[in-house]
Known about the structure:
Bound molecules: uracil
Radius of gyration: 22 Å
Number of strands: 13
Oligomer: single chain
Distance between the termini: 39 Å
Keywords: Glycosyltransferase, Transferase
Domain Pyrimidine nucleoside phosphorylase C-terminal: 345-419
Largest sheet: 6 strands, mixed
InterPro entries: Glycosyl_Trfase_fam3, Glycosyl_Trfase_fam3_N_dom, Glycosyl_Trfase_fam3_N_dom_sf, Nuc_phospho_transferase, PYNP-like_C_sf, PYNP_C, Pyrmidine_PPas_bac/euk, Pyrmidine_PPase_CS
Pfam families: Glycos_trans_3N, Glycos_transf_3, PYNP_C
Helix content: 40-55%
Strand content: 15-25%
Order of helices and strands: HHHHEHEHHEHHEHEEHHHHHEEHEEEHEE
Subunit structure: Homodimer.
Amino acid sequence: MLMTDIIAAKRDGGELTREQIEFFVRGVTDGSIPDYQSAALLMAIVWRGMNRRETLDLTLAMMNSGDTLDLSSISGVKADKHSTGGVGDKTSLALLPMVAAQGVRMAKMSGRGLGHTGGTLDKLESFPGFSSALTHEQFLNQVERVGFAIAGQTADLDPADKKLYALRDVTGTVQSIPLIVSSIMSKKLAAGADVIVLDVKTGSGAFMKTEADALTLAREMVEIGRLAGRKTVACITDMDQPLGNAVGNALEVKEALALLKGEYHGDLEELCLTLGSCILTGAGAAKDEAEARAKLERGIADGSALEKFAEFIEAQGGDRRAVYDESLLPAAPVRYEARAESSGFVRHIDAQGVGLVSMHLGGGRETAESGIDLAVGVELHKKRGDAVAAGESVATIHARDEAGAESAARLLLAAYDIGAEPPEAAPFVKAIVRED
Ligand code: URA
């Protein structure tokens, strides 16, 4: 088989056979296909697309390019969650203990942040001693015993995606539904869960800018999950402004803890209840959404979700006392109020802009190797639709020094659009896409 024939077939709008797709993925994984040929095929796929059969074959070939996790030794139904990513997205920190406290086990592989979005592993390292480097056996044992675990993705899981994603990133070939679907779903399928819940973000701060594109992506992922034999649900949710109020590693941990303590109410809570309900109903732990929500809310009210989180932190080497005593978490020495220059209503907050403020303060990575400051970030006091008076604080900047705080405040105010009229109300959860 020749790679040049495969490239030409797709360039001319043809359908690739399963053998051709497997040949490509094998060659990418073992390095026998040079990057220029892979890049040419990726660009042909961007232009010509792939039908569902091709997308499924690509997904399965990528899933099988490395190790796959066998979770069958763990009792009960196992669930996993994926988010297409966004600013202030600390959902996993609260969602996993909420679900595990209801008896549904969750096995999650997570990543580190790069650029303006933070990674779950970085956030968790706010707990002194916490480690995400679990062996396969430790991971399985912890999911069984505690109810959930969050580990770094091993190099052996889906190596084809690692190579292809790096190449797509530098060749303008990220934006393609079949390539995004196969990238996300191959990793989720390799991670072994029976129930997969996908949080597909839409809006200016999201990967999918429009609701229509988010819906297309969600439908495709749900269908590929179903064809691969996993129960898959996708929620389409708003990322037209940061999620919750905190952006920055330790600040986001504190916000997730506030939710688990019943002290936070807002879009993050709504998201956790929505995704959590999809998981509980998908796993058969609740008969419908109302029952699932009631169980999740009870787990917050009676402290069991918070205690589950403390158990998890301790199991992964972290200091569980920090779950109950936030003074043990990193805190920045300087706090600075970013004050509105005019009165009106918050019409829009540029999520990416807020993410960049946090990065500017040292809370994000510019390259995969750079270190990060866990303590810094931004705490928003005003979100879309809120009234604001000139001189009132819209956000508190948490910084290392005054100079950094002042320039961050200027950048932050530029991310706020304040106008005379309130914006039109928009639902936070736009749609839920199920198999049926
Ligand atoms: N996230 C992924 O993991 N892959 C993509 O292609 C896009 C977003």
